[in-house]
Amino acid sequence: YNLWKVFFWVWYLLKIAIVALIILMFYYLVDQILTVDFIEGIGTFQLMTVGLGAQRSVRNQVIATTALGYNNYTLQNTERAVESYATERNDDAYQRNVDELERVDQWNYLFCNGWSAYQTTPRDVRTETSTEEWVDLNATTGVAKSDAKVIGTYYLYDYDGTATPDFTDIPNLFDGNGTTYWTPYPNANWTDSAGTIDPQSGQDITFDFHLSQIYMKEGVFVDWDITQITFNWRYKYDAANTLIAPGDRTPNEFSI
């Protein structure tokens, strides 16, 4: 009887061991077969996330449809706005250019006419200087002489020969008065301070004229373009100054 009880419990433990061994083997098989790749391969994960995938697809479709409509609408409006803006700017620039061209043409017309009139108008050399007069540099000294050289519009004169001309009334040449005059030798028997009598034949009197520059604008001046000089020559009769022979000409010669 005791042996039978021992056999019973031994057999009972053996069955438990067999069940445990079967469970262990099953666990081992399951561990080797049911891997993540195997589960993914049979679509288990997709079956688990089919609802989420559907929701994502629907959401993406809605977003794509909304974006497509928005882009189509916005793109057209953007293109239209850019085109309208470019057209307005081009029209504005064109109108500004037209207005500026008209302004420049008007300015050039007035300026060219005025400038041409200014350039072609004859000028009195005296009015272009601050002194408004011709300065006799031979008779000027000190600061006045230095100022005259800076300003311009002055003249010098010199002569060659033995007889000294009379330069006392030489400013009469530039006073603009038709009743005044200057003659280098007041009479035929002119005697200078050295006692020399009569001018010698061939004697020269030389004038040097210095003109001030013409003001154009600030810092810009131009020189004179003189095309003509006019002398008012008036012969003064002197009974004591007779010709050498009938028909002889007055022995005076002017050259520039």
Task: Describe what you observe in this structure.
With 256 residues, the protein is mostly helical. It is built from 5 helices and 5 strands. The chain has helices at residues 2-33, 36-41, 44-48, 50-120, 142-151, and strands at residues 135-136, 154-159, 205-210, 214-217, 220-222. The strands form 2 sheets. It has a 3-stranded mixed β-sheet, with no helix packed on it. A two-stranded antiparallel ribbon has the order 4-5. Strand 1, helix 5 and strand 2 form a beta-alpha-beta unit. The N and C termini lie far apart (174 Å).
Provide keyphrases for this structure.
about 260 residues, mainly alpha, three-stranded mixed sheet, 5 helices, about 10% strand
User: In total, how many beta strands?
Assistant: 5
Structural class: mainly alpha
The rounded distance between the terminal residues' Cα atoms is 174 Å
Helix amount: 40-55%
- Taken as a percent bin, the fraction of beta residues is 5-15%
H/E series: HHHHEHEEEE
- Order of strands across the widest beta sheet? 1-2-3
Radius of gyration from the alpha-carbon trace, in angstroms = 61 Å
Please, how many helices? 5
Kindly report the average pLDDT value: 76
The biggest sheet, with number of strands, parallel, antiparallel or mixed sense and barrel status, is: 3 strands, mixed
Uncertain residue ranges: none
Shape: rod-shaped
